[in-house]
Amino acid sequence: MSVVLSKPKRRRPQWHRLTVASVDRLTDEAVRVSFAVPEELTTTFDFSAGQHLTLRRTGADGEEVRRSYSICSTPRMLRDEGVLQVGIKQIPDGEFSGYANSGLCPGESVEVLPPLGTFGGPPAQRWHDGEPESRHYAGIIAGSGVTPVLSIAATALETEPDSRVTLLFGNRAAATVMFADELADLKDRFPERFHLIHVLSREPQASRLLHGRLDHDRLVAIFEALLPTGDVDDWYLCGPYGLVTGARQTLIEAGVGTDHIHTELFFAEEVPPPPRSETSVAGGTELTVVLDGRSSTVTMNPDEAVLDAALRVRGELPYACKGGVCATCRAKLVDGKVHMARNFALDEADVAAGYVLTCQSRPETENVVVDYDA
């Protein structure tokens, strides 16, 4: 039985070393890392608000560590200042996040892939009768979920003079709010067009409505009192799995169309994968990897992920989270069938076009062809 990964048509992103310009403390457990991008790489690292960077280093045990972090700066900052910034919150036992929060220093270089991701910034500026159309963007975010939405909000406010942004931001307490100064600066610059609503779960607020978790009932109450759903054109949801899926369902119940709801997950480890179908193939699988015009073959186990088997013969394959969240290992299924255990990164159009996350895919037919550059 064979699984074939054939070459995608898109150019595979290459690693580049970027120098750390600064590491700024945001909270006790989060930092902003700024990279200096040389002029000759500005086009390579051009991005849309909402995308992420994949960083790579060798860990203390000699093993390679890759992690993806959302870009918090704007495309304008890259073009004008040659700076690219990410927010990194330390997580328990997080090897890369721990290093970034305690050991990373200005002047060091880090291996970085060019921006990836499909969360996306504000839609292209609309024009109505020759004038920019006013839009209202809203974000429902929690914790480090503010990182890509900060870039989206700032980009919309800077480039769409008649558009508005409202952020509903959940945190434990005021001291844990990432990018508090940057958000305050946006409020100062765009007082009539930027509205920020803090909801704190462990710290009392003047309004009881804004004290607690952003669960279904609280969201419904906030929509009724402060943020009518019918007044918003596009919604951006980012944070833990429970917040994102819960907020999405609440918006759908309120009549918001799914094409106006954009989601991004940071962690999905607590989500059990769906069961494999009964067509799972037993026995060994011959996996053929076609990348950059060159084919490699390896025998894989039926319960082994395509990516893990492929990396044994093609260590340069792109990947990052291995959790079905970042889409770095995305490839196109050309022939055959695989079971994709989790998918929090590809949209319905991607799946319909045959794309899969190879970190989550296991073979179910004797012949499978996947195009890694398509």
From TrEMBL:
CDD domains: fer2 (cd00207), PA_degradation_oxidoreductase_like (cd06214). InterPro entries: 2Fe-2S_ferredoxin-like_sf, 2Fe-2S_ferredoxin-type, 2Fe2S_fd_BS, Beta-grasp_dom_sf, Cbr1-like_FAD-bd_dom, FAD-bd_FR_type, FNR_nucleotide-bd, MRET. SUPFAM superfamilies: 2Fe-2S ferredoxin-like, Ferredoxin reductase-like, C-terminal NADP-linked domain, Riboflavin synthase domain-like. Residues 13-122 form the FAD-binding FR-type domain. Keywords: 2Fe-2S, FAD, Flavoprotein, Iron, Iron-sulfur, Metal-binding, Oxidoreductase. Residues 285-374 form the 2Fe-2S ferredoxin-type domain. Its cofactor is FAD. This is Ring-1,2-phenylacetyl-CoA epoxidase subunit PaaE.
